[in-house]
Each structure stands twice: as structure tokens, then as C-alpha cells.
Amino acid sequence: MPEMRFVIEWPSGEQQVCYSPSLVVKDHIEVGESYDIDDFVARCRTALDIASERVLKKYGFPCNLARAEAARIASAAARWSGQRGVQVRVVRFVE
Q1: Gap between the terminal Cα atoms of the chain
Q2: Which of 13, 21, 54, 75 is 20 to 30 A removed from 45 (C-alpha atoms)?
Q3: Given this model, what pLDDT does residue 76 score?
Q4: Domain enclosing residue 24, as ranges
Q5: For the purposes of burial, counting CB atoms within 10 Å of the CB of 73, is it exposed (0-12), middle (13-18) or buried (19 or more)?
Q6: What's the domain count of the chain?
Q7: Looking at the record's lineage, which domain of life comes first (predicted)?
Q8: DSSP for 23-77, written as a single string
Q9: Is the distance from CB of 91 to CB of 15 less than 8 angstroms?
Q10: For residue 87, what are the CA distances in angstroms to 54, 77, 92, 93?
């Protein structure tokens, strides 16, 4: 199962490298696109849940790293909760 990383840019300009155990993230976010913060968190959670399920099916246990990454993204996004027009940009995929 090919793992990947994706680089995002928060509204503050800070960049973060995120992990996924599967390329499924590419089905949910696109390089160069900006997403409203809540939409971005939901897309990442969905993609990382699917990735964790794929690991479960292949190896018999879910991917704790995918779950932790979804939680880390949600936690980082919380500082902009409730602010309108705040977006996260997907900078690049790293495979």
C-alpha cells in the first residue's frame, strides 16, 4: 500500500506536512486548491478514515498514524473555528 505525505498551508502561512498510509487523499483534496477550514478538516477525516480502513483490510488492524493525523489536523484547525472565509491551501503531494 503506497503511503504519501501532503503539504498544506494554514491561514497563518505556516506549512505542515501531513501523512496518509494510502493515496486515497488524492480523491478528496487537490494540489493548488484552497478549502474552507471546516470542509478541509472533513475531507481529510474522510480520506484518512478510508486509508485506515484499507490498512485494516490488508493487515488486520487500523492505521493509528492515520487516525492521529486526522486528529492533529482537526486540532490545528480549531484555532480558526467559527471564522468565515478562512481557508487551507494544499501545496503539494509527496509520494
Answers
A1: 12
A2: 13
A3: 97
A4: 4-94
A5: buried
A6: 1
A7: Bacteria
A8: GGGGGT--TT-EEEHHHHHHHHHHHHHHHHHHHHHHHSS--HHHHHHHHHHHHHH
A9: yes
A10: 29, 10, 16, 18
Largest CA distance in the chain: 41
**Cell 490488508 belongs to which residue?**
58
In one letter, which amino acid is 88?
A: V
> What are 74's three cell numbers?
482537526
| pLDDT value, residue 82 | 83
Residue with cell 492505521: 63
